[in-house]
User: Fold these one by one.
Assistant:
Number 1:
Amino acid sequence: MHILLIHQAFVALDEPGGTRHHELARYLAARGHRVTVIASTVSYLTGKAETANAVLEELKGGGGVTVLRARTYSALHRSFVHRVFSFFSFMASSFLLGLKVRQVDLVWGTSPPIFQGVTAWLLARLKRVPFLFEVRDLWPAFAIQVGVLRNPLLIRLSLWLERFLYRRADRVMVNSPGFVEHVRERGARLVELVPNGVDVQMFDPYASGIGFRQEHGLEGRFVVLYAGAHGLSNDLGVVLGAAHSLMDRPEISIVLLGDGKEKPALMAQAALLGLTNLHFLLPVPKAGMAEVLAATDACIAILKPISLYATVYPNKVFDYMAAGRPVILAIDGVIRQVVEQAQGGLFVPPGDPEALAKAILHLAEDPQRARTMGLNARDYVEAHFDRAALARHLAEIFEQMGID
């Protein structure tokens, strides 16, 4: 079957960011399906026009996966208003581009941003094919709790749009069990769980990453990594607070790898505090993350202490675990259950820099326990969250929708 995916923030394996959809698309193509992706010309992670020279069509990975690039307003990270302009510009341009895609059997929309769900729904109805709506986080609920979305009218419109899409989707797919109740309460009829996971074959838990350590002056250090977005929700000021508490332990280095709107402010704050044990590095494509993770001794996953974040399954946690590294988890809820069942890391209360520093110090002083936790984590995700098995389930959902 021919599947059309509308995804503004789509990331290929040779680009930095979350590559869940490229990995799933490759599995679907290997199963004999065609996947066409309509994505933005602007990187969702950096806000830069990374693909300005490949606006109309770009083939990524071959084998039945085609990426079409829709022109998008580029000032994504300037402010909330500019971000909304970016979302609406993609909603319009992706719709026009989607009209040109022929012989589609199913349209797959994904949120956030939720506005591209409108494009996917409308294209599905015009093409008279099933509409699968994927919920990757609970927008607008997250935006309201974080305080990003405050205007009462925009909140009412966003909540209405959320219910509209849930009710009109032939199926709603979620990537965390914590989302199931939320989407059902708001009108979703058939809900499918295809959780975040990881291609375990990408990572070698026994690799040393010595080249990365040498390149960044990390030889002989206990290296703790945070990899991912540097945004408001990621609460990286807490990591800076932990680094400040660990200044008297020069054998411990903390690496923040990635990009995002808050990165310049974080760098300025780190310089003001004189955090010589903290390293800011540029994002790395997914294809290069195996070497980065091999160079680490432990990894941090962190979000703001907001109740709704207890529902999430962050992608980065599964990458950390597949690399055989213990997770220092400053997120409560369903992902805590995964890490604790795996005996693959330490939980610390979100928003507590001293607790985070103590957890880092605990692992640094007992590297054998850290190593054991990491290997436990690898075994657990290999058994329960391997992306190959998850992709088979996704393909079965699509195939069933095609029959229905």
Number 2:
Amino acid sequence: MSRTFRSPLHEMASTTPTQFWNDSCATSDLQYALEHGAVGATSNPTIVAGVLQREFADWKTRIHELFKAQPSWTEAQITWKLIEEMSVRGAALLQPTHEQSGGQKGWLSIQTNPEFHSDPEALATQALHFASLAPNLMVKMPATAAGVVAIEEVTAQGVSVNATVSFTAPQAVAVAEAVERGLKRREAAGHSTANMAPVCTIMVGRLDDWLKVCSDKQGSVPTPGTLDWAGVAVFKNAVKTFKQAGYRTRLLSAAYRNHLHWSQFIGGDVILTIPPDWQRKFNASTVPVVSRIDEPVPAHVMTELSERSRTSAVPSIPRA
């Protein structure tokens, strides 16, 4: 008997190991994503600002309550309180998935304050606080030098992390190694890690963006479409590296710019955090849902990317 799927994303989620998350904590967006197979969600201060603009009527009363209850708080403190409450509300929608999967799915990722990017103690303190707000809140932390230190520490204390602002395979490996150290410390102390699900984000679209900026500055003319493969090449290379090393961190693709950032990763044991507008575009597309994660990036594309990366302020694009 043939199976009927509601959408391409639902088909991917139902027939491959590839997970997709909603890149928004807005209730309406998350509900749409869940209907099409999503098993998680991500948020950050920018996303929350967008949610407030769209759902201000739902939050207006609560904002007034906070200002009245905390007259000495700054606007920044009020904002972070709203970020927490929005994240907890979104996490509640994912809680059934979290319970049914034994903690492997159903996470909502809440981001630490970017101002702490160079302060491991502040990052760790905020991460531990966020993780205490709901059982399925994953904490998004920067893949900076300080962030990697904090990631190891909070992993050892049982927090599932999502390393963000990562753009290269070596950066992702540094995160995975830190997570492994944290997991081993936790296990050595006699604690279970079975319900932890750490991930590392690679901002595939932002790498593409940077190479395009560099190309414009240099006044060069790339072959049409070539630079759209840069993030794909890095992500596929990282997937191979993680699989060979046996890392327990799962890779996550973010920052969507075209369908390659979806279609080329189908079939991988990875997570795709897709913004609501791109979800609708992919669901309306005719791109076949087939596994492409092991397909190499075209040789001529890799040759041009490698040449361009040598003249740009980015690490060399690894072979994929």
